[in-house]
Specification:
Distance between the termini: 23 Å
Oligomer: single chain
Order of helices and strands: EEEEEEHH
CATH topology: OB fold (Dihydrolipoamide Acetyltransferase, E2P)
Largest sheet: 5 strands, mixed, barrel
Strand order of the largest sheet: 1-3-4-6-5
CATH architecture: Beta Barrel
Number of helices: 2
CATH superfamily: Nucleic acid-binding proteins
CATH class: Mainly Beta
Number of domains: 1
Shape: globular
């Protein structure tokens, strides 16, 4: 089984970095990804323990994100709400070409391994 997401898009607004009560820091941001018909999709991303330069990325920066999709539930006042987001394992600005290339190159073997698991057993 495989839960993997690859998103390449423009940073919608500057990244918000917060420190949780547990001491873990998290960066939250949205990527805008234009679709074939021209309408944009907005993809929320969470990056745990972000590097310092994360807060310096300007709106409009093109980012490569490799991670997994999750749906989390939380309390907001008296009700329970949910949010679906990409939990990033690797985020690289496209301007850092080599790092972006390596992030994308790492996706192939993971997908290949998942495909091998789907193969029917041999004779």
């Amino acid at each position: 089984m495989l839960n993997m997401a690859v998103v390449i898009g423009n940073l919608a607004k500057p990244v918000e970095v917060r420190n949780l009560a547990s001491g873990v820091s998290i960066a939250n941001f949205d990527l805008v990804v234009p679709q074939i018909d021209g309408t944009p999709d907005t993809v929320p991303v969470a990056l745990f323990e972000p590097p310092d330069e994360t807060s310096q990325w300007p709106a409009g920066e093109v980012l490569v994100v490799v991670g997994r999709v999750r749906r989390r539930f939380f309390r907001a006042g008296p009700s329970t709400q949910s949010r679906t987001e990409v939990v990033a394992e690797n985020v690289v600005p496209i301007s850092q070409y080599e790092g972006a290339r390596l992030a994308l190159a790492g996706v192939g073997p993971v997908i290949g391994g998942a495909l091998e698991e789907l193969q029917p057993p041999g004779p």
